[in-house]
């Protein structure tokens, strides 16, 4: 490390200036035990829970458990240089992270320090990572949509700004893809995104960041990364750091989207920490307050009332299930906290339905009121249609003698499923989603062979852009359906020129 | 530090009983002797822990501390019966702490490179008593060359550090950014 002489003299000058103020009576403690990122400290009599303490080496620690003659501290940073007998001092501060717009486009660790090699983050603003959630009167009902750009979500389980929607599924079912696509679709939507990666491989996070950068999404995104090699305390803190950064936008009347990928890893990190702090284990060895761990985090997502600026923070927590078991401890907890869940299933994923959303098990408890009128109109019966198709599908396997109405329903169902499929990193704007679903529910796709549906869709969007931009604009600007004859005309004219593959 | 919690319980109980009988000052003086006898390495503790002397423990305590206050002897009997012989020094320390807190006296240490003159020590005691929240301080001067210059007052896990070492450490710390620590 290079130190310049003027730096030293400036520092000493400052020291002389504040000589008297600098020294005060401090509470100290002594390390009596350390290991596994945890230190037990004797002394520190008046320390607060959640306070930062400083070790002799300058490493920071976070006070977690207070006992009669000792306090348990989790070490944030290198625990290798901490030895038994070291002195520990109180700082009187609680943990804070830097916040603000200068973090946008950066990759930081849970302490808010840059890890992308792009230099220092120039911000003076900080926020405490633990903070009370907005109260009853500070909130407002959710009414604005958050466009994910995924047809299956925007039509079936709409998400509103300020909502908490759980994304749950086994490993390798495309959970992260849903979040990445959602973030990609927030371009020009007046939305700041925060992607919190917890316990993931650094190479995966690198690839995700690269995806953001390639699609221009990094311009409005902050990535908080606590990788698999990060110590458990940092993995435990990462979501709180992310939520603090999101709050800064929310309380300034802006909109934020925070993705926690994923909370089961955070719970596992917290379990590790709690066991090392000798807290009694409960179900699945998680500590007793693992529910509170997640509820206090997710409760901070809100839609604020107009007096407070009307900002919002949407939370998309992830939970990974083991072999589709949503009745395990963490999944049931987080399901009960959130305003709905999107359930991704691996058998759907492998049968080619991507995103592999199970419409039967997925719900959005508040998003319906945030859906645009146009989308509500076309998607109203979609869920029921799908459910009855699933029912008929298993039924129809028994025989081939089906009446016309049943056959027609089966036909429509197959096409519905086909339309809800969507390619990787290809978010679709709301107006185009409305158009294709409109065509679907009005039977305009019934004659198109199933294998042509995807191609039909792609070409249809291009056609609309070229030939009917005013229809799209009408839907986008009014939020309502365009004039019926215009929409019908757009669909039928395209249908006539569409060439089937056989 | 081991079992210091148990030692505290005994000290608190003894202090309460002594206060009821207005014996606390006498017991404090007696405890100094007790501490010496029980401090490791202690022949008495070894003797008490010897299984062969199992039956004689109570008699030994009674005869050794014949002239001491009855409360103190009874406490020692209880502690020996509980196999808490090794906690006795801890108990004495906590008792002294309790009685000094009651009197408003802060007992602690002041570290310096050379011995402070009695006058300097008095000055320090008078100057910091209020800051530490006591009426009076009873500081013991200890030599610690790592202080380099200045002095450092430590009372009950609270510290006032105006040593040169602390200043240098502070400067050193400011050069290392947070994320590299």
Automatic annotation (TrEMBL), chain A:
Q: Where does ATP bind?
A: 169-176
Do you know which SUPFAM superfamilies this protein is assigned to?
C-terminal domain of alpha and beta subunits of F1 ATP synthase, N-terminal domain of alpha and beta subunits of F1 ATP synthase, P-loop containing nucleoside triphosphate hydrolases
Q: Which species expresses this protein natively? A: Halolactibacillus halophilus
Q: What is this protein called?
A: ATP synthase subunit alpha
Localization in the cell: Cell membrane; Membrane
Q: Under which EC number(s) is this enzyme classified?
A: 7.1.2.2
Which residue ranges does the record assign to the ATPase F1/V1/A1 complex alpha/beta subunit nucleotide-binding domain?
Answer: 149-364
Give the matching CDD domains.
Answer: ATP-synt_F1_alpha_C (cd18113), ATP-synt_F1_alpha_N (cd18116), F1-ATPase_alpha_CD (cd01132)
Q: What are its GO cellular component terms?
A: plasma membrane; proton-transporting ATP synthase complex
Automatic annotation (TrEMBL), chain B:
Compartments where located = Cell membrane; Membrane
* GO CC annotation, single: plasma membrane
Instruction: Show the GO MF annotations.
Output: proton-transporting ATP synthase activity, rotational mechanism
* Keyword Membrane set for record: yes
* Keyword annotations of the record: ATP synthesis, Cell membrane, CF(1), Hydrogen ion transport, Ion transport, Membrane, Transport
User: Which Pfam families does the UniProt record give?
Assistant: OSCP
Instruction: Describe its membrane topology.
Output: Peripheral membrane protein
Matches recorded under InterPro entries? ATP_synth_OSCP/delta_N_sf, ATPase_OSCP/dsu
Does the keyword field hold DNA damage?
no
Q: List the HAMAP family hit by this protein, alphabetically.
A: ATP_synth_delta_bact
Query: NCBIfam families attached here?
Result: ATP_synt_delta
Function in brief: This protein is part of the stalk that links CF(0) to CF(1). It either transmits conformational changes from CF(0) to CF(1) or is implicated in proton conduction. F(1)F(0) ATP synthase produces ATP from ADP in the presence of a proton or sodium gradient. F-type ATPases consist of two structural domains, F(1) containing the extramembraneous catalytic core and F(0) containing the membrane proton channel, linked together by a central stalk and a peripheral stalk. During catalysis, ATP synthesis in the catalytic domain of F(1) is coupled via a rotary mechanism of the central stalk subunits to proton translocation.
| Family, as annotated | Belongs to the ATPase delta chain family.
Q: What is this protein called?
A: ATP synthase subunit delta
- Name the species this protein comes from: Halolactibacillus halophilus
Q: Supply the gene name.
A: atpH
């Amino acid at each position: 490390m290079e130190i310049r002489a003027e730096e030293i003299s400036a520092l000493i000058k400052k020291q002389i200036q504040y000589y008297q103020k600098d020294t005060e009576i401090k509470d100290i403690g002594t390390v009596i035990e350390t290991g596994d990122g945890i230190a037990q400290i004797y002394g520190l009599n008046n320390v607060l829970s959640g306070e930062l303490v400083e070790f002799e080496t300058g490493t920071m620690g976070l006070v977690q458990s207070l006992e009669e003659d000792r306090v348990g501290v989790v070490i944030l940073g290198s625990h290798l240089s901490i030895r038994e007998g070291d002195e520990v001092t109180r700082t009187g501060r609680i943990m804070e992270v830097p916040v603000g717009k200068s973090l946008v486009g950066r990759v930081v660790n849970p302490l808010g320090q840059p890890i992308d090699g792009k230099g220092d983050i120039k911000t003076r603003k900080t926020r405490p990572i633990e903070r009370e959630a907005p109260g009853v009167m500070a909130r407002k009902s959710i009414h604005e949509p958050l466009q994910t750009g995924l047809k299956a979500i925007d039509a079936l389980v709409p998400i509103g700004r300020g909502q908490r929607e759980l994304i749950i599924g086994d490993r390798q079912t495309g959970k992260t893809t849903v979040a990445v696509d959602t973030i990609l679709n927030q371009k020009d939507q007046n939305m700041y995104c925060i992607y919190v990666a917890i316990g993931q491989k650094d190479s995966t996070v690198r690839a995700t960041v690269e995806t953001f950068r390639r699609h221009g999404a990094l311009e409005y995104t902050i990535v908080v990364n606590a990788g698999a090699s990060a110590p458990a305390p940092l993995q435990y803190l990462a979501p709180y750091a992310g939520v603090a950064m999101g709050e800064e936008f929310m309380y300034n009347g802006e909109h934020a989207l925070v993705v926690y990928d994923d909370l089961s890893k955070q719970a596992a990190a917290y379990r590790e920490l709690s066991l090392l702090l000798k807290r009694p284990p409960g179900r699945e060895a998680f500590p007793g307050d693992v529910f509170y761990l997640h509820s206090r985090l997710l409760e901070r997502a809100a839609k604020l009332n107009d007096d407070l600026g009307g900002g919002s923070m949407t939370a998309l927590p992830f939970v990974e299930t083991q072999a589709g078991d949503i009745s395990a401890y963490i999944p049931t907890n987080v399901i009960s906290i959130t305003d709905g869940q999107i359930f991704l299933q691996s058998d759907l994923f492998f049968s080619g339905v991507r995103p592999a959303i199970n419409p039967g098990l997925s719900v959005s408890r508040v998003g319906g009121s945030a859906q645009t009128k146009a989308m509500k109109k076309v998607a109203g019966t979609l869920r029921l249609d799908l459910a009855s198709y699933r029912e008929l599908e298993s039924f129809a396997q028994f025989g081939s003698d089906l009446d016309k109405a049943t056959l027609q329903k089966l036909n429509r169902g197959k096409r519905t499923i086909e339309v809800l499929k969507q390619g990787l990193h290809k978010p679709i704007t709301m107006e185009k989603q409305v158009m294709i679903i409109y065509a679907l529910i009005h039977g305009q796709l019934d004659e198109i062979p199933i294998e042509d549906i995807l191609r039909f869709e792609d070409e249809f969007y291009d056609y609309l852009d070229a030939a009917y931009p005013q229809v799209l604009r009408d839907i986008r600007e009014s939020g309502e359906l365009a004039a019926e004859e215009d929409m019908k005309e757009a669909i039928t004219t395209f249908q006539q020129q569409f060439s089937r593959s056989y | 530090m081991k079992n210091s919690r148990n030692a505290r319980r005994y000290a608190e109980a003894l202090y309460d009983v002594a206060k009821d009988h207005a014996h606390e000052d006498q017991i404090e003086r007696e405890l100094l002797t007790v501490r010496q006898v029980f401090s490791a390495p202690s022949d008495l503790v070894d003797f008490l822990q010897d299984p062969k002397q199992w039956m004689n423990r109570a008699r030994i305590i009674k005869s050794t501390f014949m002239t001491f206050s009855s409360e103190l002897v009874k406490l020692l009997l209880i502690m020996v019966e509980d196999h808490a012989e090794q906690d006795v020094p801890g108990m004495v320390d906590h008792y002294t702490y309790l009685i000094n807190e009651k009197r408003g006296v802060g007992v602690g240490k002041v570290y310096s490179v050379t011995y402070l003159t009695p006058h300097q020590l008095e000055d320090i005691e008078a100057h910091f008593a209020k800051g530490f929240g006591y009426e009076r301080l009873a500081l013991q001067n200890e030599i610690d060359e790592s202080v380099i210059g200045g002095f450092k007052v430590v009372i009950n896990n609270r510290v006032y550090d105006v040593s040169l070492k602390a200043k240098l450490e502070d400067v050193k710390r400011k050069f290392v950014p947070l994320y590299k620590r």
